[in-house]
Amino acid sequence: MANRKKCLVIGFLVFLWTDLDAQVEEKKEEQTCRLLGKFDLNGYVDAKNHTIVIGGLFPIHSRTIPANESILEPVSAKCEGFNFRGFRWMKTMIHTIREINERKDILPNTTLGYQIFDTCFTISKAMESALVFLTGQEENKPNIRNSTGAYLAGIIGSGGSSLSIAASRILGLYYLPQVGYFSTCSSLSDKFQFPSYIRTIASDKYQSRAMVQLIQHFGWVWVGAIAADDDYGKYGVKAFKEHMEEVNLCIAFSETIPKVYSNEKMQKAVKAIRSSTARVIVLYASDIDLSPFVLEMVYHNITDRTWIASEAWITSALIAKPEYFPYFGGSIGFAIPRTDIPGLKEFLYDVHPSKDPNDVLTIEFWQTAFNCTWPNSSVPYNVDHRVNMTGKEDRLYAMSDKFCTGEEKLEDLNNTYLDVSQLRITNNVKQAVYAMAHALDQLSRCEERRGPFSPDSSCAYLPDFEPWQLMYYMKMVRFETHDGKIIKFDSNGDMFGHYDILNWQLDDNGEVAFVKIGEYKFKPNKIELVLEKNSTIFWNTESSGLQSSSSCSSNQDLNGQRECDQCGEDYWSNEQKSMCVLKEVEFLAYDEALGFTLLILSIFGALVILAVMIVYVIYRQTPLVNANDRELSFLIQVSLIITVLSSILFIDKPYNWSCMARQVTLALGFSLCLSSTLGKTISLFFAYRISISKTRFTSMHPLFRKIIVLVSVVVEVGICIAYLVLQPPRVYKNMESQNIKIILECNEGSIEFLCSLFGIDAFLAFLCFLTTFVARQLPDNYYEGKCITFGILVFFIVWISFVPAYLSTKGKFKVAVEIFAILASSYGLLGCIFAPKCFIILLRPKRNTDETVGGRVPTVDRSMQLTSASVSSELNNTTVSTVLDE
C-alpha cells in the first residue's frame, strides 16, 4: 500500500513537472515569435479575390512628425504635410490596375490586386513598408509572401532616389522586382547592388550631360551648383561636375541644402549664392526638399539668377507659383515628356469620404483640399508645418472651425491632384504597372519544355513562381504604350527616350506656364540637344545671362565668351578672371619675422662660438684647456661655427647652388664636429680602462685620434662629391600643397645619398655616446665625459623630434623646422661641452688646476692609485704609456 502511494505521488510530481515544462517551452516559443511592435502605415489594399498583388510605395505625405522624446518605447512615426502630387500618383496606380483587369489581351485569366503604402517621403517609412511587404504585420505569423495572403509579384516605387535605394537593398535580397517611376539616381543602375531594380524614368547620367550641353549652347562658363543632401542631389551634382570638367567649364561653387532643416547649413548655401558672381545655378533637388530653400530666396530677395532645374521640380506646382516667379522665373529645366491618360481625370474626380468612412487618406485629402473638418472623423485635421527662414516652425494653416458638408465640389479646386495637363511622372507610374503586368503575362504564356529556366527548359506558373523568375521576364519586357511609345529596358534596367526642355513664363492669367523650347534625345547610338528655332525664352537676368557668365574659376581666364582657358602652371587668374597673373611665390625670406629671427639666432650662435674660441686661445696654457687634446677642442669649435652658419643657406630664395651647398655644408660640419668629439671620448674610454686595470695599459697616441677625424671627414667629402655630381639637389616649384601659391623649395635629389651623408653623422654620434657612457664612472671632478654624454643626448633628442615635425609641416615652415633643429643641436653641443669649462676659466679660475682637473682615480687594486699628474699626463697624451704611482 505504501509503495502504491509512493508511486502515485511520484507520478503526480512527474505530471506536474512535464506540464510546467511544456508551458515554459510554449511561453518561450511565443516570446520568440512575438513582434516587438507594429508599423504605423497608411495606404490602400485590394487583395480579395485576387491571386496576385502588386505593391506600391508613394509619398502621400511629405515628412514625418518628430517623435515625442518623453515616450520610452519606440513607436512608428506619424506623417504630416499632405502631398496632392503623391496622392495622384497613387490613384493612377489603382486606375491602371483596374484598366488592366478589364483588358482581355493581358492576363486574361488572372486579376491583379494591390497593396499600397505611404512612404511619407522618408527613408524610415520606405523601410517599414518594404519589411511589411515581405513579412506581413500579423503577430506570431511571419509570412514571407505578403500580409494580404495573396502572392506579391513586385513593387512599384518608392517615389524618390534615397527611398528607392533604401527599399531596394531589402527587396533585392529576395530578388523581388521593383519598378521605379521617380528615382533617377545613377547608382540604381548598378546591378551588383540593386539586382532587381528597373525604372520607367531615365537615369541622371543623361540629365547631367544634357545640362552641360545646354550650358555650352548658351555660352555660360561660370556656373554654381546646389544639391539636396541626399543620394539624388549628391550623385546628380557629382556627375554634372565631372561633365563640366570634361568640356573645360567652370564650377563657381557647390553647396547642399539639408533634408532636415538646419539654419546654419541653409545660410551657408544662401551666402555662397549671394557672394558669387555666377548668375547661372544648377539646382538638383526634389520639390519637397526645395520648399524651404525657395522661402530663403524670397526672404533674402535674391533675384537676377537663371536656374537650371532638374526633372524633380521643374513642373512642380509646389514651386511654380506666381508669388515665386520674380525669384525663379525664367528657369530652364528638363522634364519627362507629358502625355494624356484616357479616363484618369474622371477617376480622380471619383473620390469622396462618404464612400468609405475608414478611408483615412481620402478624409485627410478632403479636409486639406477644402480647409474643413470631416464630421465624426478620427482623422486629425492636417496641419501643414513648414520651416521658415528663422529655423522655427510656422503653422501655415490653422485648424478650421467649419465642418465639411460633403457638398464641396472638386471642380472648384485648383490644386496639383486634379491638374491633368502636366502628366509626366504620373505617366511613369502607369507604365511601371504595365511593365509588371506584361512581364506576368509573358510568364503565364510560357509553353512546357520551351521555358527559359534550366536545366530542363521549365516554365514558371501563376501564381506559384519565384521572384527571380518574374525578374527574368521584367528585363525582357517590351511593349507599346497608349500614346505609341515603345517601353523597353537595357541591361542596367534603364530606358532611353528624351527630355522636354521647359522655360518658366507667365501666361495671360498671371500663372506660371511651362513653355517647351526644345528636346534632349538620348538613344543607344545618338545623343542630341535640339532647341526650337525662334522660340521665345524668358530670362530673369540681364543679357540672357551672358553677362553673368564672363567669369572663370581661379586658375582659368575667359577666352571670348564660350570657354575658359587654363592658365600656365606659374599663373593664376586675376580677381576679374579676365587675365592670368603670376602666382605668389613663397619661401622663407630674410625680411619676414620668422626668417629674420632665425638669421639672428644663427649669427648670434656663431659669435658665441667665436667668443669661446677666443677664451680658449687666451687660456690655452691652462690645465683645463690642455686637458684631453686642445687641438680637438678647436676643431669642434670650428665645426660648430660651420653648422650654425650653414643654416643661413636655408633662408631666402633657394637657388641651385644654395640647394647643393646647404646639405653638404651641414653634413661636413657635423662630421667634423662628431669625429673630433669621438677622439675625445676615446681618450676618456682609455682613461677609464686604465683606472680599472691592474697592469700597465697603453694609451692611444694623439696621431691616431687625428687620423680618426681625417678618415671620417674624407669619407664624408667623397660621398658629398658623388652626391653633387650624380644626383645633385635642384630648386623645385611645389604647386601641390597650395594651388594659389608656388612654394620654392629644394628637391634633395637622391634620398639614398642624403641618408648616407647623415647616416655617417648618426653613426659617429652613436660611437661618441657609447664610449662616454662606458667611461661615466670617472671621478666626479673630472666631468668632461658627463658633459659630452649630455651633449650627444641633446643631439639625438633634437633630431629624433625633428623627423615627425618635419614631415607634418609644409612650405616655408618646413625649412624653419630644419633650421631650428640645426641651431638647437649646435647650441646643445656648445652648451654641454664648452659652457662648463668657460664658467670655470672665467668665473672660477682657482679651480683651473691640475689637481682639480685630474683628481685621484680609484683602481681595482686598492693599493694602486692614479695621481692627478698621471691622469693629466694620460689625458694630454704627452707620454706613450701611463705613469702609475705605486
Automatic annotation (TrEMBL):
Transmembrane segments: 593-619, 631-651, 663-686, 707-726, 751-775, 787-807, 819-843
UniProt signal peptide: 1-22
Family annotation (Pfam families): 7tm_3, ANF_receptor
Compartments where found: Cell membrane
UniProt domain G-protein coupled receptors family 3 profile: residue ranges: 594-849
Source species: Heterocephalus glaber (Naked mole rat)
Membrane topology of the entry: Multi-pass membrane protein
Example GO molecular function: olfactory receptor activity
Keywords of this entry: Cell membrane, G-protein coupled receptor, Glycoprotein, Membrane, Receptor, Signal, Transducer, Transmembrane, Transmembrane helix
Organism taxonomic ancestry: Eukaryota, Metazoa, Chordata, Craniata, Vertebrata
InterPro entries found in the cross-reference section: ANF_lig-bd_rcpt, GPCR_3, GPCR_3_9-Cys_sf, GPCR_3_C, GPCR_3_Ca_sens_rcpt-rel, Peripla_BP_I
Protein name as it appears in the record: Vomeronasal type-2 receptor 1
Record GO cellular component, one term: plasma membrane
